[in-house]
Structure formats: structure tokens, C-alpha cells
Request: fold
Amino acid sequence: MLTAFLAGAPTKDVNPLLPEDYDLLWSSVIFVALLIVVAIWVLPRLNKALDARAEAIEGGLKKAEEAQAAAAAARDEYTAQLAEARAEASRIREQARTDGQAILAELKEQAQAEAARIVANAQTQIEAERSAAMVSLRAEVGSLALDLASGVIGETLSDDKKAAAVVDRFLADLEADEKAKAGK
Amino acid sequence: MTPLVRFSDDTDGGFHGPSLEEFFPPAVLFEGTPFELNRIMLIRILITVLLIVWMLVATRRMRLVPTRFQAANEFLFGFVRNSIIIETLGEKDGKRFMAPLFAMFFLILGLNLTGIVPGLNIAGTSVIGTPLVLAIVSYVMFVWAGIRKHGWKFFKNSLFPAGVPWPLYIVVTPIELISTFVLRPVTLTLRLLMNMVAGHMLLVLCFSATSFFLFDVLAGGQLIGLLGIGTFAFGAVFTLFELMVAALQAYVFTFLAAVYIQLSLADEH
Reply:
């Protein structure tokens, strides 16, 4: 049938569908040779390389996952520590504020007591000094006034009895006057 | 065919059309013995040696992070290994039948490609021996796979498919017998062989016509010889077409061989 294709060309009597013995032999030889090489070397090497790569990729992914998990754990721990530190700080601050207020109150109290004490002292002292002043004043003012009066009205007032009575009356008036002023 | 006849009668035999003799070139060595070596046998051996060297070099010191050379080869190997074999047969059975199917694919591809390699110019698969041997390998594999898996029930399953009313077996069984056990290897052989024979014929026709038109007709002063430019363009296009056919036939042959094995292994028929 194929020979019809070859119009005009000189043909030997060949049939392309009938294999020659050498054709079959060499075909088998080359296939077997290639098959042996493929089975013994090529495929094992190829599979090994592909498996190694798959493993490496899987291992890499796993490692990355682990690293991620570790990072997340570290972050959580850090956050927890941070929160704890914050709480601690605010606790310390609160404590300090209370302490400060207590100290301040105590100081204020001490200062007030001190002030009160100082005031009391001062009053006592003033009172004492006033009394002393009053005593010395009474003595000095009496004689000064008498001297002055003697000088003014002459020797009539040198009579001791009369003078003493005048002075006493004057001082009593003075005292009464002062008491009336203080009582107001 | 008419111009072919006319031109071959023309001039002093300037046009040589393609002939079947090209597939049976004169012997080079060991003429008349089963070891006879002719041009095509030498091409086959050359390609096989090149394939072996290439595969060994390509898989030597394979690295985790591939070089460009390794990545390109891995792409090819991976296509056959995964896309053809494992996807059809599954991981486990794919690995059992990996070596013969893998060798089959690359042997067919390599021998097909010699059809368009300048200087070789004929496909190693364009003579029936290699397609036939490989079809027999496929046949043996799927029968063996079936018997290993199902024992002698394999033949019962194949010839008497389940779920068919028994009177129909009179019709179905002969059809199954012929299609499974006769036509499968025959179609495998002929599909590959005829594709390569036809491809070679087409290329020879285009390029010998080009040679005839340009160097006989045009050189003889006839302008019609410019047709040679057209025939050369056709030849170039068909060369690319043959490149595709070479890869496609390798794929189809290997894929069908894998599918036949898968059908034998399948539980229900």
C-alpha cells in the first residue's frame, strides 16, 4: 500500500511493516542499555535529589514555624513582663504618694506644734517682761513724777505722807485706766 | 502527486522523490547478519549513547539549589516522572514502572528528533523495529501488571467486563480481546512509525523539490524555478511541525503505555 505513494521512484521490494532481524536486535539493545542506565543510576539519583529537596523545604518550613512560635512566645513573655513592670511601677508610685502625704502631714503637725510652743513661750516671756516693766515702772515713775512735781510746785510736796498718797492715787488711776482698756 | 510524476519524467532525473528505500539504507557493517549496521542503526546507537551520557551528566552531583543546567534537566525529567507517570499511575505504582516508561519516553524523543537534525535527517523511530519493541515492552508491562495484581482473574476481568448481561459477551468479548490484546500494541507501533515515516517523506519532498527547482529549473533559465522558494518555506515550516510531532508522539506513546498499565491495575473493569 505504501508503495503506491512512490510513483515513479524505482523501488526495491521493501515492506516497512515487516521488521528486519537486525532492526529488532538493535532496537532491543538500545532500549535495554538505556533502561539499565536509567534504572541503576538516573532514577535513583533523581529521586534522591528530589526527596532531599522536598525534605529540605519541609524542614525549612518547619524550622520557620518553630522560629515563629519561639518569637511569639518571647513576645508574650516580654509583654507580660512589661505589664508586670508597669503594675509594679504604678504600685511604687502609689506607695510613694501615700508615704509623701503621711510625711507631709506629720511635718505639718510638728511645725504647728512648734509654732504653738513658740507662741506660748513668747506670750509667757512677754507677760513676764511686762510685769517686770510694770514693777520697775511703778518705782521709777513714782519717783520721777514726784521729782518732776516737786520741781514744778516747789517744796510743798516734799512731805512724804502726802506725796505717797498722791502717787498711789495716780498709779491706781493709771492701773484702773489700763485695766479698763484691756477689758474692752 | 501529478507534478511529482511530471517532474520525475522531466530533465535527466534531476528530481528524486522520497522512497521507502531510504528506510533501508545499505549496510555499513556485518551485512546479512542479525548484527547488520546501517545508517539508521548507527543513528540509533549514537542517540542512545548521547542520551546515556546526557542523563548521567545531568544527574551527577545534583544540588539542593539547582544550577540552570540542572533546573532545565529537572524540568524535563520532572515532567516525565510526575506529569506522565505518577499522575497516571499514582506514587506507588508509578515508581514500580518508572524506569521502563522513563527510558521509553526519552528514547522515543531522542530518536524522533533525529528526523530534523541536519546531517542525520532521518528519525530513528521511522523504521518499525524500535516502535515495535517498545510496543511489546508496553504490552508485557500491562499484562504483567494485571496478572500480578489480579492473577488469572485479570483476563476474565478484561474479556468479560462486569455489569454486562451475559448474552452480550458473545459480542463484547471478541471486541475486548481484539482491542485490548491486539490493537493496543498495533496502534502504538503504527501511530509512532507512520508519524515519523510521513514526516520524513514530507521533509524530503519539500527539500528535494527545493533543490530541483532552484538548482535544475531555475539554473536552467526557467523562472518557474522560483517555486523553490515556496517549497523551501514549506520545508522550514514542516521542520518546526516535526519538532512538535517528535515531542507529541513521545508523550502520547509513553502516556498510553502508562494508561494501559493503570487500566490493568484498576479494580473494576
